[in-house]
Amino acid sequence: MSKIDIILVSYNTAEYTKRAIASVYEETKKTSFRIIMVDNDSKDNSVELIASEFPEVEIIQTGANLGFAGGVNVGTKASNSEYILLLNPDTVILEGAIDKLFEYALSTPKAGVWGGITLNNDLSLNPNNARARLSFKTLLFSALGLSKAFNKSCFFNHDNYGCWDRKSEREVDVVTGCFFLTPRHLWEDLQGLDETFFMYAEEADYCIRAIKKGYQPRVTPDAKIIHHGGVSETNLSGKMLKLLKGKAELINKHAKSWEKPIHKGLLQLHVLNKLLSLKLLSLFKKDKLETLKEWQTVYKQRNEWLKGYR
User: Model-level pTM?
Assistant: First the structure.
């Protein structure tokens, strides 16, 4: 039995998936692992390419797009390892990152969820490896644009731990699902990812539920990966609609009754302010017109995404 089963959900990302899997084999030398690729009914050559290039990878074809949570749960049902590692297809493992993350997990067992550092393709820091859970403070500062204006501040940008340079380990609320290690016993205790979340925020929900069980997710700077992000999404509005639905669903599930309308109001204010600022900016920069149209689409559908996935 392998120590880690790596669950990779693919959806029309053939070349990225190939690169991700190749990096796992090249960079993981100390930890026994198995890769399970769950294909969510890709229309490209994902299944054929991976089966040809990596015959040792177990491939499960769902026959439908189950979303990230649904695909991951299918994969974990076929696994039997001590630990489960969620890995996005648009990632590249660097410098033994899986070995280092596993060593860190063994040294900090009370965390329950472990993650590393994410980098852009040019190896510059991508600070989206971890974040704080949604709260009045994070939603307010985001809605007012303060988290962006003071992005290096841990007060105004607490959502993204703005003052943390990612050079030290620390406790976090949420480990991003692109590189997310958890023990099987906790996974089974929490019954995996909540499939209500089709895509985005499912890992936040898992981490929040783990914290309620007495665990505290952690991140190590020693385990680094490249994460491209959003390669299966073809347009901005499509991605934003899913992100906002996920956030609204987190509010539905974890906010107190009296907090829900306030938090959702701030979520809507964030989109409105983004739209208004783009309208102003597009008067001087015509290249912003397409982005403006995308955000107009998002705002027009606010009554839909504010419901979450319910």
Answer: 0.94
